[in-house]
Amino acid sequence: MLIREYLEKLVPICDKDWAVFSTKFEKQVFKKNSLIIRSGDVENYLSFIETGMLRFWIEVGDKEITFDFAFEKSFFSAYLSFLTRDTTNWNIQAITPIVLWRISYTDLHLIYEQTVVGEKIGRLAAEDLFIKAAKRKIDLLTYTAEELYLILFKEQPHLIQNIPLKYLASYIGVTPQALSRIRSRIY
Amino acid sequence: MLIREYLEKLVPICDKDWAVFSTKFEKQVFKKNSLIIRSGDVENYLSFIETGMLRFWIEVGDKEITFDFAFEKSFFSAYLSFLTRDTTNWNIQAITPIVLWRISYTDLHLIYEQTVVGEKIGRLAAEDLFIKAAKRKIDLLTYTAEELYLILFKEQPHLIQNIPLKYLASYIGVTPQALSRIRSRIY
DNA sequence: CGCCGAGTTGAACTGAATCAAGAAACGTGG
DNA sequence: CCACGTTTCTTGATTCAGTTCAACTCGGCG
User: Fold this and answer.
1) How many angstroms separate the CA of A177 from the C1' of C21?
2) Domain A2-133 fold
3) Confidence class of residue A20 from pLDDT cuts 50, 70 and 90?
């Protein structure tokens, strides 16, 4: 199974532990453009994307700010809300049709209690998320919009292909008009 | 002891576990302006600030970018380097005289193995760091320099008092001149 | 007393925002 | 599968916040 493969890159999981894990994941399908989490919800799941692509955004005043994307074969969650059990102001939207596997908050905490590797996986997942967030935080301070676009272009070419320009623009912190001009300047 | 108090806000620690923890922390003192970590080092410690204030910065081209501060009674580390055992490009500098307690990578991993709460604390620490990084990431995309300054002013007034303007300017992503003008505009 | 780094202020310049209009792409219903 | 309407993207003109370069002030310290 995909999730086990992914997790075992981080830490070996014995069959006995895996038996506890695997029964807790449920499969879920979402249509393109549907909202998986909307502002005001409490996040109840930690999810693993089997196929598809997601966009994370918040509403500020009258505009949307896209602050993250997530891709196939990675975990995601409105993690702050998931941890604190408080409502989120995040929206998570399917940019493509989505197939995912998810585990509920209560089930995950059962695993934390019942298996030795549970806490370790939780720690590694949180560390992983932290590393990504820290890198991006520094990138946003360090680079200009044009540089951020070029980095994106190099590191995630599939992203540039498939994601509407207006979302990418917001992600690097400029208006769609500005990104359109950056693009025409580059080629 | 301060560290136990702080940790027990997150998770109860029994005396037996604490006995394992406490022997591993060593006290360390740094002078004002000294570098606790410099670019090129591998971070070997997770540290807890007893007194003082730190600045995190990286060098980009010919200029310094301040991307974080840390205060009394909180943990810090060049965490990415600490986790990956790879060299860091972060610099961590004492803005004031510093007293801290720190635990080495090997000792922390001994604790992960020897105590039940070890992994849990590691997870909670990583979650805590992630939450802060995620919030800041969104703030940087959402607000203008002036708004970021006002938020800082409201949430961390002691920071504004004690930290040289040029570091604050870099933290909100503008030049010292620009922040000086923002300030004079506000009052 | 003089030096030096930090902060302020001014002027010219630049990249991005905003407002606006037109072109291209997309999906939805017939 | 086409036609229409909506959304997305592009391009232009104007405005604005922030950069850069430079000069000057202030305070601390040798």
Assistant:
1) 13
2) Jelly Rolls (2.60.120)
3) confident
